[in-house]
Amino acid sequence: MPELKITDNDIEEFLQDYNQRLSDPSMALEFDDDRRAIIKAWDDVQACPGSGKTTIVAAKLLILEKKLRSADLGVCVLTHTNVARNEIISRIESHPSGFRLTQYPNFIGTIQEFVNRYLATPYLRSNEMNPVRIDDDACAALMSDRISYRTKSFLAKNKHASISELKIHHETGEVKVPGFKKESTKPSYKNLIEIFCERLHRGYFFYSEMYYFAKQCIQENAEVVSALRKRFSYVLVDEMQDTQKFQDDLINELFLCDSVMLQRLGDPDQAIFDNMGGESPNETFNGNSALVPLKSTHRFPVDIAAKISGLSVTGIGELQSFRQASDDTPHTMFLYTDDTKELVLERFCELLDSLEIDNQARCAKAVGGTAGQGGFISEYWPSYGRGKSVKTPRPQLLIEAVSRKWWATEADAASQYALVMQCILDLLRRGDVTESVGDYTRHYSTTSLGRHLRTVGAYEEFRGLLTSWIMDGPPTEELWEAQCNKLLSLLGIDGKEGAVNDYLAYSENNGEYNDIAQAGAANIYRSASGREIEIGTIHSVKGETHDATLVLETKNHQFDLESLAGRLAFMENGLISGARKQKFARQLYVAASRPRRLLCMAAHQDRVQPDVRTQLEQHGWIVQLV
Fold first, then answer.
1. Which end of the chain is more exposed for a tag (fewer CB within 10 A), N or C?
2. In 3D, which of 551, 606, 559 has the Cα closest to residue 581?
3. pTM beyond cutoff 0.90
4. Average per-residue pLDDT in the chain?
């Protein structure tokens, strides 16, 4: 095991250095005994919502970097999403050690990125297979374009057959052919196998397939594991509760050993993504009753903490808060009838108006467990459409990628360049411009496009054009037309017809009205007073913080709030039993832990009995009939 200890002196030295750099002394960072213990040790941690887990991880990274700098040893931080990765990086990038943590020999990124970079891609290349694009949608689109009309008809007639299933299973390595249980001589089977082989030859892979190749890499190259353990002697895994079993198994095979310090942080009570795609959830973390609990929050006040403690599946105990409650905050349980269900959102908005909570859609949200028709979110507001909510919308026009509005979350030049490059690749697909590889043609990747442009002597002009967009911002309409003509010439696209012409259209929607923000939050309910709130699923707000949150009762076989009303009223004690009830509890726990100030819920009057209402009121809820 590596000989390295983080001491109280290390933490004090870090805090002193960090706080001296702040322009606002009121933002000074402090760590209590519980958080210091987590920074110093390597035990797995259950961190409640708003506990400052990301700040703890960032502080530990900066302390480690200083101690490891002369040892040429790296730190590896694994996350589940790019959002989580970017959040960690944003916490460290202003510190002198922050940049070094993003460079060799360190790694901060998603589990998928790690698997792709260090295991699957090297293995594929050693077997003369070059991964050009790793993307589920791109793989499905490529194969859909290639299959015959007869095969499309065959898949359409098979209710459970999808072209997205035509891939290598990440554990068995078997190729599942949709619509067939075994090998067949039928034309559709042959056609599917042909396009599957073509996809691999073109270098297109599903995300999950990369895990299979990662496993093969480990099995066939024992020295790979030794090399990774030597380089990454210190490993942190964030949001561990959402790790699936096959990901957990891979992490353990690589890093659960005496030569690596491994710490996993998360909250099993918030595990609402761990069985996505029907995969088994992890067992070593979510099923571990010996996790070190961190149950004090900076996000919500003590009155909200007290109300949601009963939803903990793990039984973490009463949540604590660093924030005192306001005496008059009316946390409300709206009880509606069949005739008044569509009035719930209006009543919520009226309450927000009375409290003078900021009238911005993202400050207050209404969320439910399931979307669709029949006991779902849409029954509260028929205009709701799940397809409208896009977390990271793709620009619909090339000029939108140049607009500063798209860079609100892409602040660094590398991210801006990547966004513009992705749009250039989209333009090439619209123009049906491909490269030839042997007997096949395939769409360009960033790497292959750069190689092609260098070959034809157009690379420097191309880079200059992209640099001007990033540095100078949106051009005038006249300049834009000239730049587009130059771009088409450099890329070898003839004319500006159809899809290409549409994509290059000029737009001046770069002013005060943020079309991009609206694209990402299209489910906006507007009240009679003009207040706006965003409507979405509980899964869509995981990791967010709101001023006010309304949790809508929805149905998945059973009504979630009805099944947990006894827990909210503290009429039921002990651990929550039953898989469905535990699932409901985790979802409601995530939803109810979003707000800083006001928590509301909505349920049908018939599903919250009078004795439950009485207990809810005794625990600080305002029960309001709608």
1. N
2. 559
3. no
4. 87
